[in-house]
Design brief:
By secondary structure, this protein is mainly alpha-helical. It is built from five helices and two strands. It has one domain.
Length: about 120
């Protein structure tokens, strides 16, 4: 994303380009899976639709899909994200406080019918 659109693209541009980049990542995922190698596809999966899509693709491709949910209090996630962003080198995609808050509004918690392994990351 940074190489194509800079460190802080406008929301409208970000959404459109993120969707295109996600398509490329899924295509690459399929190419790697066909070689018999396991893939960790860390795409965020912030919405039910994105998680359903990942499960659908896995079924169609005949591979196992495991979902891991990383959990911690929101204020801890925010603090960690802002600290990580502050420590990143120049030219890295920025996640500011307002950006974090906007992204958080888009998050859809996992439903009780969505099997996953929960990893508690603590409150530090």
């Amino acid at each position: 994303m940074v190489a194509l659109h800079g460190v802080n693209p406008p929301d409208a541009l970000f959404r459109d380009q993120a969707a295109r980049i996600e398509t490329l990542i899924w295509e690459h995922t399929w190419r790697v899976l066909r070689t018999g190698v396991d893939v960790v596809h860390e795409g965020g999966f912030w919405t039910r639709a994105s998680r359903d899509d990942a499960r659908r693709r896995a079924r169609e491709w005949g591979v196992e899909c495991r979902l891991y949910a990383l959990r911690c209090p929101v204020e801890v996630a925010r603090r960690r994200t802002l600290a990580r962003t502050a420590g990143m080198p120049e030219g890295t995609l920025e996640i500011s406080g307002p950006t974090f808050d906007l992204l958080l509004q888009r998050f859809e918690p996992l439903g009780p019918d969505e099997p996953c392994s929960v990893v508690e990351t603590g409150g530090l």
